[in-house]
Amino acid sequence: MRTTRTVAGIAVLALALSACGGAGESDGGGQQAADSAVGVTKDAVVIGTHQPLTGPAAPGYSKISVGARAVYQAINDGGGINGRKIDYKVEDDGYNPTKTVEVVKKLVLQDKVFAIVGGLGTPTHSKVVDYLNSEGVPDLLVSSGALAWDNPQKSPMTFGYQLDYAREGKIQGKYVKDTFAGKKIGYFTQNDDIGRDTQAGLDQFVKDQTVARQGYDSANTDVTPQLSALKAAGAEVVVCECIPAFTALAILAAAKIGYKPQFVVSSIGADPATLSGLLQDFAKRGGASVSSAQLLNGLIGTGYLPDVAQTSDPWVAYFKGIHDKYIPKEPLTNTLFYGMVQAYTFGQALKAAGPDPTRQKIVDAMSSGALKGPGLTPFGFSKDSHSGYTGAYVFKINPDTTTTVIQPPSVTDRGTGAITPYSGERATPEQVNLLGR
Amino acid sequence: MTVRTSIPETRVEPVTKKRTVPPLLRHVLFALGAFAVVVVLTLVTDEFTNLRIATIGYYLVAVAGLTLLTGLTGQVSLGHGAFMFIGAYTVALLVRRVPSFPLWADLLLASAAGGLAGLLAGAAAARLRGPYLAGATLALAVGLPALTRRFQDFLGGSNGLSFTVHSRPAGIGVPELRWQTWIVWLSVLIALVLVLNIVRGRLGRDFRAVRDDEVAASLGGIAVGRTKILAFLISAVCGGLAGGLQAFLLGTAAPGSFTPALSLSLLAAVVLGGLGSLWGALWGAVALVYFQAWSEDLADALHLNTDVANNLPLAVYGVILIVVVLAFPRGIQGGFQRLRGLLRRSAEKKENHENH
């Protein structure tokens, strides 16, 4: 009797709910008016970001917002952009997508940010792209090389920042094919977009030479089985599409089993300063001491920003000035530098948006193609492309952990287009004159 | 009723019959009242607070399920995050692959999927007890999210799945988050009414009998194993629903959200709120959402380094847990009860005093 009543009760409530229609059906909801200027006042612009300050991705990556904050401070001390100071709100998502959704909604609804700048991570940021676009919030310079950010039709407010993984795979593939003709090649890749997208690029060039493909999950730090398999397959060159921690683990695992391949590492995991620290740290935990300089010597990597060790570069010198003034205690790594360049690039876009910025104006400024960043290759931003940096140079790590460029910057597309050397001039800090009036 | 030896129903009629409303109706009325409170709360708070209220809602149903399992049946589960994981992925897959399904069907299927997993886990768990059971359920929380990497194309790998759930009927001028909060709480309250009826009914008595003494319970004609499995099933249904609601609310299902830490937090919330009381589940869920938010704000305000900031929220939560349990062994709800008892006694004393 009671059961019948219960079931009837559920049925009635279920029917009431069924009026809502299909859960996955498009509601055709229009984008909110983009001419709004939420977060912009007479003397400030509020922006926000989500970063892994804690959790598995925090080592290394937690320094990105430190670098960015220093640049915003420098901008504010220089009078701001068009008289407005930048109020930079950093929310910690712990690299947990659920938290990302929560903190981004907090930034949009409670802090009323003008834009999200440099939201970090593919698994995390991919969960908020739809939300930001449907709310009409500019989603600028996403910190990830996934292809998903470059989709102006579906996500008109979202713009990439990094060189995307497919382009980087192509440039690596071509370099490896030209330099190591006839040698056996193995892939060691992260089991997500990073691995999938880069392999698509690599395979265009070195598919025939490839003898083994091994993947890793960031949850499992024992990579000896994968490196053993690469050794057994006779791979002489190992292309490593790994975040810094796993580049270091792969190098250590190879050393442990007496395997000495030529490592070729993507920009996301090839920062010598960060790698040195991680190698020492991991070896110490394993009860050994290693010479990171010796382990890193000869490692080949790709990059699109100038290396912080290249002090003769005008941009490195410029940012080193900000570093020395605002965060002298933080080691100046390429990861910190990444955040500094990103913040500077946002400053450029905000300036280009004019004295009365609106959300639509900053999106237009981003798409104008006028942003000439501190990077060594150009941005792909235009009306039809929201792609960040479009190419890379190849470098080798020297015995003293400095780097030498062994192939100058070249650019390419995300499809099957050619790879062409890039010879465009970079504007100097004086020419960009972000803080000039 | 198969082997139940018929105990003569000795119904002791209460001397003064205070309550004439049948329990189901009473629970439904109470739920309607609670829903009205939630609606008013969402109307007077901003949209982001709405999100927090909705978050409390789905944690509440998960914690309530765990309360039924741990507080009432005495089975400890360290793996309840796994059922939330199943619920979240069920909703994610349904929304993406069968977009024409209405939301309530998605949520029902999410609960069913959680329940199915709970049935299997419960069948194994019924043979285990104490630390062995805790270990087995922990393995569930550790192992299950790895499925996403095994079936990358289907479950989206480490990236997980993202989607947008459209539940707001056209023409309703309510902000999306407010509407979602209502849906979450409506689902939660329906589930709670059912759980409350079970707790107050014969099955609830069986649960408590099994918890207090398994031998005595089986002598009393209760099929101990089946009762334990049922408890697992019901609490896993709650877990599945909670996960489904989370996916609905946030539009995401990713393995990084369902770490063993989530399962442990849920259990801690049960203890903190008050073992074995559904009111306790509410306090536990509130604590889970707000203590975390406050301690993160604290870590943020103090500009701590990564290692400290990493652990501060958990440390604060742990300290609060220890303090509450030391002060009120039966959790926050136990504290409230004691407070009420004290007030009543002092009122009686006062009354006596005045009478003399």
From TrEMBL, chain A:
Signal sequence range: 1-23
UniProt keyword terms in alphabetical order: Signal
InterPro entries to which the protein is assigned, alphabetical: Leu-bd, Peripla_BP_I
Domain Leucine-binding protein per the UniProt entry, residue ranges: 45-400
Entry keyword Signal: yes
Matching CDD domains: PBP1_ABC_ligand_binding-like
Pfam families the record matches: Peripla_BP_6 (PF13458)
Family membership noted in the UniProt record: Belongs to the leucine-binding protein family.
Annotated protein name in UniProt: ABC transporter substrate-binding protein
Organism: Amycolatopsis mongoliensis
UniProtKB/TrEMBL annotation, chain B:
GO molecular function terms attached to this record: branched-chain amino acid transmembrane transporter activity
GO cellular component, one term: plasma membrane
Signal peptide positions (record): none
Localization per Swiss-Prot or TrEMBL: Cell membrane
Swiss-Prot/TrEMBL keywords: Cell membrane, Membrane, Transmembrane, Transmembrane helix
Pfam families, per database record: BPD_transp_2
Membrane topology annotation: Multi-pass membrane protein
UniProt main location, coarse: membrane
Cross-referenced InterPro entries: ABC_transp_permease, LivM-like
TM ranges: 24-44, 56-72, 78-95, 107-126, 132-148, 182-199, 229-254, 266-294, 314-332
PANTHER family linked: HIGH-AFFINITY BRANCHED-CHAIN AMINO ACID TRANSPORT SYSTEM PERMEASE, HIGH-AFFINITY BRANCHED-CHAIN AMINO ACID TRANSPORT SYSTEM PERMEASE PROTEIN LIVM
Protein name: Branched-chain amino acid ABC transporter permease
